[in-house]
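can u do me a favor
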């Protein structure tokens, strides 16, 4: 199951389909099999959360980690509008956040190319000394550029900057694949 995809699940843990399409989910029909959950404690907690969402109409979330995860995944279980079902969504906290468009940062916040590259690098790796070493400049130079970035973006801290940049990944993704629009078919109005 892909991170961010929601599925309908019965109280027994059977997957009905995706929350968006209502179609039967291909492959595994058992939620724990679909997710690849093997440890009994996580299976029990997910089963309890699903039961509570279906029968008590309450929402809950749990953290799930595999041997490959650093931070893990958040499994959110919410009641569905349809009686007898819950909606389960998995968010992979270890998944890459996405790319930030350097050109977009330069355009929106009027950053220099160097500042935009540093902001993007800061988003990917939070260590200023690594950024300075990769750029072949002194740490103080990067610190000064970060201060300029914070000022231009209108944030008071690197934490606030990271929040803004995380939102920028969504804009960057949208700008990489612009929606296709069907041409409008215009007809002249009949007169007379």
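np, heres the sequence
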């Amino acid at each position: 199951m892909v991170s961010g995809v929601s599925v309908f699940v019965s109280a027994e843990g059977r997957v009905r389909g995706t929350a968006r399409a209502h179609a039967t989910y291909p492959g595994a029909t058992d939620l724990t099999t679909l997710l690849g959950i093997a440890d009994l404690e996580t299976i029990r907690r997910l089963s309890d959360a699903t039961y509570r969402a279906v029968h008590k109409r309450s929402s809950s979330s749990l953290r799930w980690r595999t041997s490959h995860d650093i931070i893990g995944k958040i499994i959110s279980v919410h009641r569905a509008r349809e009686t007898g079902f819950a909606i389960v969504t998995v968010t992979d906290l270890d998944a890459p956040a996405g790319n930030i468009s350097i050109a977009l940062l330069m355009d929106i916040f009027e950053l220099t190319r160097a500042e935009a590259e540093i902001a993007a690098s800061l988003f990917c790796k939070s260590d200023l000394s690594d950024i300075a070493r990769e750029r072949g400049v002194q740490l103080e130079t990067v610190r000064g550029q970060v201060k300029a970035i914070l000022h231009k973006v209108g944030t008071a801290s690197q934490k606030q900057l990271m929040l803004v940049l995380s939102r920028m990944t969504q804009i960057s993704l949208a700008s990489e694949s612009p929606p296709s629009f069907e041409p409008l078919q215009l007809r002249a109005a009949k007169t007379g």
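The chain is about 45% helix and 15% strand. hope that helps!!
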